Amino acid sequence: MNHKMEQNYQRFRNLFCGLCILAAALLLLTTMKNIINSVAAASWEIHQGIVTNGSEDMNRVLVTPYNLTNRWLEYKYEINGNEYRNTRVGYGINKPTSILRAGENVKVYVNPDNHAMSVLTVGLAKGHIVGLLFSVGFAALGFYLWRKL
Question: b/e for 86-122, b at 16 or more Cβ within 10 A?
Fold first, then answer.
């Protein structure tokens, strides 16, 4: 390799190393935030809810320009005469553990400070572990490339 090609190769490796470290950091922060919120939600008030729109078609996901949203699973619950509706399954958890059909009763974890915030699933989930493993993998790849520089 000539000197010019070697410089271009080094720049590319530096860029790729930086992108790997950045991806690892962002994924780790997001995953840790989801884990902390999910574990904290386990101590929220538990209320009885009813599924209003089932999860039979959870393989389809509605993608909008602003967010990734699950619009097929919806549930409602009542607190002090006020009805609340939500679509959140859990923090970093996209699917319920079983198929939920409209009309089924579900256990809803409700934030005592804001009754509009609720989840169906709490605690550490498989998606959290996958996020942590991928962040470690990206970090390892980035540091491997950095060491080779």
Answer: bebbbbbbebbeeebeeeeebebbbeeeebebbbbbb
Residue 144 confidence (pLDDT): 87
Q: Is the pLDDT score of 65 beyond 80?
A: no
Dist CA 42 CA 120 (whole Å)? 10
Count of other CB atoms within 10 angstroms of residue 68: 9
Of residues 58 and 102, the one with the higher pLDDT is 102
* Domain boundaries along the sequence of the chain: 15-42+124-149, 43-122
> Cα 131 to the chain's mean position, in Å?
9
| Residue 149: closest CA among 10, 7, 8 | 10
**Three-state secondary structure call for residue 100:** coil
User: For 61, phi and psi rounded to 5 degrees?
Assistant: -130, 130
Identity of the amino acid at 143? F
Average pLDDT, the chain: 86
Report the SS3 class of residue 127.
helix
Residue 107 has a pLDDT of 96
